[in-house]
Write a structure and sequence with these properties.
CATH topology of the largest domain: Cytochrome Bc1 Complex, Chain D, domain 2
Helix content: 55-70%
CATH class of the largest domain: Mainly Alpha
Number of helices: 8
Bound molecules: heme C
Structural class: mainly alpha
Number of domains: 2
Radius of gyration: 31 Å
Distance between the termini: 87 Å
Strand content: under 5%
């Protein structure tokens, strides 16, 4: 086969593909079969109690209004395995009954990588990512145990 035949065949093939593509073009196809706009979105809003932005704002307000104890309780989920669901202790020492300020001080120490007992290395990675707020909240929650 000489080069001209190959080039001609290729050109025809490309032309056919483009022609098929354009003649089968569906004007109403938006590229997204999952659009929920206009009436669909209004219906969704009515069902879900507001726009996505409204719902997010309400969520943020609820979070901001939540008590430190409530926020701490959420965070405490990460501690249960070692300190028990009620702070009764297990792998780690008993936390229930300790003063809020003691819990906070100890966590601040662990966060700074300071040793307390023989097993402090278990607490360093736990405390490391905690913010001051996290520590305040979690200490407040443990104070209720
Ligand atoms: C992997 C197990 C583990 C997890 C998870 C864990 N701890 Fe601990 N925790 C320990 C151990 C072990 C100690 C004792 C460390 C030592 O020897 O200093 C300890 C000590 C502590 C102490 C000091 C207690 C005292 O009286 O000396 C506090 C406060 C504490 N943990 C809080 C927390 C909080 C809050 C969380 C969750 C964010 C948490 N821990 C998660 C194992 C864990």
């Amino acid at each position: 086969m000489n080069t001209n035949v190959i080039v001609a065949a290729f050109t025809i093939a490309v032309t056919v593909i483009i022609w098929l593509g354009t003649t089968n073009n569906d004007e109403s196809w938006t590229g997204n079969r999952n659009v929920c706009v206009g009436d669909c979105y209004e219906a969704w809003k009515a069902e879900n109690g507001g726009s996505i932005a409204d719902i997010e704002r309400v969520k943020q307000e609820a979070l901001a209004a939540a008590s430190p104890e409530a926020l701490g309780e959420t965070y405490y989920g990460q501690c249960i395995a070692c300190h028990g669901g009620n702070g009764e202790g297990g792998i780690g020492p008993k936390l229930a009954g300790q003063a809020v300020s003691d819990i906070a001080d100890k966590l601040i120490g662990y966060r700074a990588g300071e040793p307390r007992g023989a097993q402090s290395a278990m607490m360093w990675p736990v405390a490391k990512p905690m913010t001051d707020d996290d520590i305040g909240n979690i200490a407040a929650y443990i104070g209720t145990l």
